[in-house]
Amino acid sequence: MGSRKYYDYEVCYLAFHGDNGKAILLDDRGLSLRSLGSLLNKHRAGRRAIIHLASCYGLKVSQATMDNFLATTGALAVCGYDVEVDTIEAAAFELLLFNHLSGRWRSIGRRLEQCRDAYPDMWARLGFVYSC
Question: Is the whole-model pTM more than 0.90?
Answer without folding.
Answer: no
